[in-house]
Amino acid sequence: MRSLSWTSGPLPAVALIVMWSSGFIGARLATDTADTLTVLMWRFLLVTALVVPWWLLVRRRRHRLTGRDVVIQALVGLLAQSIYLISSVKAIELGVPTGTTALIESLQPLFAGVLVGPLLKERVSVLQWAGLVLGLVSVAMVIGDGLSLASGRPGWVYAVPFVGMITLTAATLLQRGKARTVALTDSLTIQCCTSAVLFVILGVATGHARPPRDGDFWLALVWMVVLATFGGYGLYWLNLKHYTVTRVNSLIYLCPSTTAFWAFLMFGEPMGPLAMAGFGVGLIAVLLVNRAEPPDAAASDPPRTPDVPVASSTGEDPPGTGWQSHRTVPSGERKKDS
Prior knowledge:
By secondary structure, the chain is an all-alpha fold. The protein has one domain. It is about 70% helix and about 0% strand. The protein has 13 helices and no strands. The chain has helices spanning about 10-30, 35-60, 65-95, 100-105, 110-120, 125-145, 160-180, 185-205, 215-240, 245-250, 255-265, 275-290, 330-335. The longest helix is centred in the first third of the chain and has 27 residues, at about 65-95. The two termini are about 30 Å apart.
């Protein structure tokens, strides 16, 4: 019997769905007490204060990072963290329902699916395309149900989450195509520091740097740092190391239903029958996309041969998680080592 792995298989996939959804809930909790820039500035100051010492602790063997590596990772952080989070959190602050924001962001797999073939040379099968299109139908069903409950808001606020959806797609393609040889600890540290610097500049420049004294604000920040940043963001890239862009992004279709149910329990946001049916269609879409991809799809990617030592579970990886940066070793190299 095959044992479950914390770094591959169903466990990281399920954890990604829950943790990614938690970010929308945390944003709703935080923006009830402070401005978006205040929330994000202090969130990433906390993240950086935790990430940098962790990076220094686990990075026992110094891997050489080139200037190009740092620039690419900073750009990924700008797209996948900074702009994505500003658009998502601001949308919720402006009154877009939590579940609706998650639904709009879930359109990202369709954009990634359209671009992944020509840009990254990954094959997208007919069955996968069917699943992606079915996912779009499910998103439309739930959005249609949610919009009927969102009267009184200007229509332009619903365009705000689309900005983050586009930049996250761009970051996914950039990370997958240009930066796969950078260790996870290095990439997360650079990206979080980039976001922290940007949000401090924006917070001070706009007069939103001072945090409120409300204890709920700090509780929401801890929620967002632990669950959304380290949980959701880290698990996203962890899954991307083992599976294709199409398969990982298909999991995001399950985040709207998770978020909507979560928001229903915490905030009383209603779910109509059309939305509930849409969530079921989304589940079918995810099953189609994942069924169409062979289990060893990630292993069929071109060999990754970074010009730095490969991380070990006792050196580069965070203690107790077993995360590791890995590469496919050519058979000739294995024979030579033996």
